[in-house]
Amino acid sequence: MMYWNGMNGWGYALMMVGNVLFWAAVVVGIVLLVRYVGRSSPSPMEPRLPSAEELLAQRYARGEIDSEEYRARLDMLRGSRADA
């Protein structure tokens, strides 16, 4: 076993504090990196919810509503968006 000459209690304490600070910095760096990468790109597994106009267009395409009702609801959606 190798002994360090001149290493007293303060030397061991400073070495231990330095080691803890180093590993804390590594962990914080990894956490920040993961949060940055996760925020910058949307998850491909997360489905995107369709907008109100897309839902209305799908209902019109399926024949659930006629063209008159589609136009009236579309105008209402666009009008309420302009008001907000």
Automatic annotation (TrEMBL):
Signal peptide: none annotated. Residues 52-74 form the SHOCT domain. The chain crosses the membrane at residues 12-38. It comes from the Bacteria. The keyword Ligase does not apply. It holds the Pfam family SHOCT. Keywords: Membrane, Transmembrane, Transmembrane helix. This is SHOCT domain-containing protein. It comes from Microbispora catharanthi.
